[in-house]
Automatic annotation (TrEMBL):
UniProt keywords, alphabetically: Membrane, Transmembrane, Transmembrane helix
A single GO cellular-component term on record: presynaptic membrane
Keyword Transmembrane helix: yes
Record's compositionally biased regions (Polar residues): 1-14
Keyword Transmembrane helix assigned: yes
GO biological process assignments: clustering of voltage-gated calcium channels; neuromuscular synaptic transmission; neuron-neuron synaptic transmission
Annotated stretches, region: Disordered: 1-20
Protein name: Uncharacterized protein
InterPro entries, per the entry: Fuseless (IPR032751)
Pfam families according to UniProt: Fuseless (PF15993)
Region forming the signal peptide: none
Transmembrane segments: 45-63, 83-103, 124-142, 148-174
Amino acid sequence: MNYLQQSEETTEPLNTAEKTEISITPESPEVFRIILPPGRCTKRLLNISDVFLSLFVITPLVVAHWKGTWAFIERHPEQFPPWMSFLFGCTLHTSFVLIKELLHMEFTAPNDGYKSVKKIISQNIIVKIYTYLFSLGCNLNWQGGWAALQVVFGTELKGAVIPSAICLVLLLALKGIRNLAAPPVFVALDNKDIAFSFPTRFRVQVSQILN
């Protein structure tokens, strides 16, 4: 009996999981290929190319667009008074915040169904119009706020230093000093997946606010 029990124990099949278990170590060539960083020369070349593209191509085009819109607003002060321009820009941005999720679901959310050429073209047109209106809202905010500050504080040195110092202190208190690091070295590609997305202070979804 002891012999039979011993033979049964020795002939018991091994666990399949133990036979097929594979341990991946950092020395494995597949893992090494995944974690291998790009070469220094390639990385430096891409960084330099990105900086030159930002400074000498994208930035002049963006600045020219902003300057043209800004000059048009300044040439028509009757239609664009400072405070009205500033408030209209704020209203436009607030509207974009409230409807950005709806626009994303309608025009850029993944869809497994078939999309016609007409729908694709209409989506691209809507995205471009939205981007231009967003730019117009930014110009109205900046130009209107700038002109309003000149009306309140004047154009002398004291009128420039006081609001700058106050705003800098407020940004430090709100932990928003990084917002001063604006373009030119900032490049965003036209991607429909993030066309209506932009960061907010608390990153709260609009549906959570309205419910």
